[in-house]
Amino acid sequence: MKVLVIGSGGREHALVWSILQSPAAPEVVCAPGNAGIAAIARCVPVDIKDLSSLLSVTMAEQPDLTVIGPELPLSLGLVDELTLRGYRVFGPTRAAAMLETSKAFAKQFMQRHNLPTAGYAVCHSLEEIDEALTHFTTPVVVKADGLAAGKGVAICDSKEIARTAAQEMLNGRLLGSRQPAVVLEEFLTGDEVSLLVLSDGERVLPLAPARDYKRIGENNTGPNTGGMGAYSTNTLLEPEMVDWLVAHIAQPAIDGMAAEGTPFRGVLYCGLMMTARGPMLLEFNARFGDPETEAILPRIEVRGEHRGLLEALDAAAAGRLASDQLAWKRQPSITVIAASAGYPGSFSAGHPITGLDEVARMEDVVVFHAGTARSEGAVVTSGGRVLAVTALGETLRQAQQRAYAAIDAIQFQGKYCRRDIARQSLEDVTL
Ligand code: AMP
Ligand code: GLY
Q1: Rounded to the nearest whole angstrom, what is the distance from the C-alpha of residue 128 to the centroid of ligand 2?
Q2: Residues 6 or more apart whose Cβ sits within 8 Å of residue 369
Q3: Which residues contact 89 (CB under 8 A, 6 or more apart)?
Q4: Is the pTM of this model over 0.85?
Q5: Which terminus of the chain has a smaller tally of CB atoms within 10 A, N or C?
Q6: Is the CB of 335 inside a 6 Å radius of any atom of ligand 2?
Q7: H, E, C per residue of 79-100
Q8: Which residue's CA is the closest to the ligand 2 atom numbered 5?
Q9: How far does the centroid of ligand 2 lie from the alpha carbon of residue 293, in Å?
Q10: Gap between the Cα atoms of 34 and 119, Å rounded
């Protein structure tokens, strides 16, 4: 079986690595990939922003299954185009991906289907913003409607600040492009958890829960990033809570999309906040989370009748997902991101990375490349997030010690990481 994975980050490295665990011994090609992915799969160039480039690569490769990592190709309608041409694809159509690509659509969908979420208003003009703000207390959350790479959310302490943020999202000053709408939202407090579910358009299969760390600074300070770390344990959500979330959020969402004529096939990422009023949806994503994926996938047990990720993705794409398709290791996992100094602002690239060979020999550690390239035979930095270092352990603490031992063995100029991934959890309970 030949599989094409689209994307170039740590998430795609984890997807390729996990697909390769399959006993079916698949051939995996990645477009465009990175230096780490190139060590385990053939990489082919593609312009990820260009639909015709993505279509040409797929037609040249003739995969049996295409797995799409990032949201941009989904928003371009890659799944629609490939499906029309008879390819089997894991990922939602452009219409189904609107659960991620339009926050206004997502909030209205949540309301139509009684999914628990913060109170909100969708506004298209300053007049609407002013009127809506009279119904909110502070802090108030302002969200851009469209894709904003993690920069589209402002938590505002006063209505004046919220008014300005919303106005600047609409006129394009804040994000560089005009937003058709903004969403004002009630501010919620509680612990955040990501529950990702696979779906074949009808059935739902939850993955192990994870928590990600979006801010650049320790203790969740500073600007938002693409994600600085994550962890996954079986205890992050009790099994009864997972059942509740599937029954009250994930399954009704999949049913709702099917009922509206836009069935959702792929992975539905439910970003949740566990509030005093119960679990609330902060957002949907229409793809695997990054770096949650790097923490979650190494916990899949590939043994006996449990055949692993490839078989689950293929079953979802073919419309025959089974509820016992995946088994999970008991061991917790942690992923720590090694980033370039300056990220999420400007940073320099091209710095050689050392220590990767030493880390490759470490027990229960796997390094996924996020932003790396090959230059004159050496692996060098090429992005803000450079490596996603994942470790499993008998306990969360052991996983944490292993991940940081690996991070410390890796060097490149300007290496930065957060030291507090999973720390809060270790303080809450003795693990
Ligand atoms: P989102 O892109 O919608 O997930 O928002 C990014 C981050 O902003 C979330 O992970 C939360 O930490 C925070 N956030 C979003 N919505 C709310 C809300 N209604 N109340 C409090 N925090 C929020
Ligand atoms: N980790 C958050 C995201 O992938 O959007």
Answers
A1: 30
A2: 10, 13, 34, 35, 36, 37, 379, 386, 387, 388
A3: 65, 66, 67, 68, 78, 79, 82, 83, 317
A4: yes
A5: N
A6: no
A7: HHHHHHCCCCEECCCCCCCHHH
A8: 289
A9: 9
A10: 41
What does the angle CA 9 – CA 325 – CA 199 come to, to the nearest 5 degrees? 60
Atom 2 of ligand 2: nearest residue by CA position:
289
Q: How far is the CA of 41 from the centre of ligand 1 (A)?
A: 36
- Ligand 1 pocket, 289 CB below 6 A? no
Judged against a pLDDT cut of 70, whether residue 431 lies above it is answered with no
| Predicted confidence (pLDDT) per residue in 34-86, tens digit | 999 999 999 999 999 999 999 999 999 999 999 999 999 999 999 999 999 99
pLDDT tens-digit readout, 99-125: 999 999 999 999 999 999 999 999 999
Instruction: Determine if ligand 2 sits within 6 Å of the CB of residue 227.
Output: yes
Domains and CATH numbers, the chain: 2-93 (3.40.50.20), 119-186 (3.30.1490.20), 191-328 (3.30.470.20), 333-430 (3.90.600.10)
Helix or strand (DSSP H, E) at 75: helix 71-75
The token duo for 199 is 């779906």
Burial 410-423 (b: 16+ CB within 10 A, else e): bebeebbbbebbbe
Structure tokens at 360: 């490759």
Burial of 270 (0-12, 13-18, 19+ CB in 10 A): buried
Is any ligand 2 atom within 6 A of the Cβ of residue 292? yes
3-state SS class at 116: coil
Contact 282 CB / ligand 1 (< 6 Å): yes
Q: What confidence category does residue 174 fall into, taking pLDDT thresholds of 50, 70 and 90?
A: confident
Q: Name which of 247, 284, 273, 278 is nearest 109 in CA terms.
A: 284
Residue 330: its H or E element: none
Task: Give residue 159 CA to ligand 1 midpoint distance, Å.
Answer: 17
Helix boundaries (H) for 208-250: 239-245
